[in-house]
Structures are given as C-alpha cells and as structure tokens.
Amino acid sequence: MIEYLTSHFSIITLGLLSSLAAGLATGAGSLPIFFIKDFPKKILDALLGFAAGVMLAATSFSLIIPAIEAAGGGIRGAGITLIGILGGGIFLDMVDKFFPDTNLSLGPSQNHNNLRKAWLFITAITIHNFPEGLAVGVGFGDGNISNGISLAIAIGLQNMPEGLACALPLIREKVPVWKAFLAALATGLVEPIGGLLGVGIVQVARPLLPFTLAFAAGAMLFVISHEIIPETQRDKSSKLATHSLLIGFVIMMFLDNVLG
Length: 260
What we know:
It is found in: Cell membrane. This is ZIP family metal transporter. Belongs to the ZIP transporter (TC 2.A.5) family. Keywords: Cell membrane, Membrane, Transmembrane, Transmembrane helix, Zinc. The protein is mainly alpha-helical. It has one domain. It contains ten helices and no strands. Helix 2 runs antiparallel to helix 8 and helix 5 runs antiparallel to helix 9. About 3% of the residues have low confidence.
C-alpha cells in the first residue's frame, strides 16, 4: 500500500488528505447523536482513554524517535528533540491561556450559562486541533509515509470521541441535532490547514525536520496530558479509562511497527 501511495500521490497531497481524514473523524464520532440522545459517560471515558494511549504511542514511535534519528542521535539529537518537545508544549500552554475552557461536564444542564460554555468549549477544541493536523503534516514531510499514516490513524481515533464530546453538550441544551453534528465536524476542519503547513515547512526547510517533529510531539503530549487524561479521571470510571489507555498504547505500538 505504501508503494502505491508514493507512486500515485505527492507527499504534500498525502499530508493534506491524511490530515483531512483525521479531521473528518470528529464528525464521524458525533454520528451517534442521531440515534442516541444520552451517551453513558463511562463509555466516553473508555474511548477517550483508548485514544490517549493511541496518541501516546504515535507520539513516541512516529515523532520523538524519528526526531532523534533525524538529528543524528547522541547528545545533539537528544538536545534538539528536548528543545522541540518543550517548545511545542510551551506553545500549546500559551494557546491554552487564551482558550482555557476545554473541559466541559457532560452531565445534565444545571444553569443558563451551559450553552455559552458549550460553544466556548467547541471553539477551544477547534484551536487545539490545529497542532494535531500540523503533527500529521510533519509526519509526512520527511517522506516516511508509515509515520504519517500512523499519526493520522492515532489522531483520527482520538478525534472520534472528541467529536461526540463536542456534540453532546449542544444536544443537552436543545440545539438541533444537525447543527450539533456540523459544529462537531467543523472542529476538525482546521486540521488540514495544519497538515498542509506542516508538510510544507519540512519540504521547504528540511534541516528543520528534527525540531518540527519534536515540536509536534510536545504539542501532542500537552493535549494528552492536559486535556484528554484529566477528563477521564473525574469519576469512578477512571480505572476503566486507564486500562483503555494501556490497550490503545499497545495496539498502536503494534500497528506502528507493522506499518513501518
């Protein structure tokens, strides 16, 4: 499959299409709202935990390790990767200061501010999805198609429960189902922009590859640690979410090696 893709599509096209597919997964994840009006929090926590494990594995094996190798290994490789990871984390931390409200209770509505909070949550998720698209683009940018595919799969799987989490609060505030679906879908449509930027930067300035890989890894780690994992550890289903994280990690580790 890898040979077919490389012979029929350019790296830029693959990066754009893969980040678009990952972004569209937010809409796919919200589809259950057309059939189920009240989704159990326990199931959502398990899905988010699984997605966190998948993203951790993809970050480790498709971003951090390739960054060290691309920088030549040793102290130099580790140093460049360290700076890139910290840079990506600090960048997302700065973004989070402007859009801090990315954790929204999925419980019943309790006050008139919930609809405003729901839209703020969706806006924040949209902003935070940009570096995920960037990570996919960077993964493709060095010409390693398997890395890019692994990242696109990981982020797409994470986007599915995230899309559901975006749509449910709107449904609970009596927003029409189709509007809630479109809102969830829209949160992922910034990812192709990030993907195009990521693959473009690496193609134009290849010496920046190790740093951009590590930067994307830092951004991913911030999202996982600051947003996804805490959301799954708020109630009695926290252990289920932890088990799901481990399962997601080992499955993605296996897939990454098979694709590689």
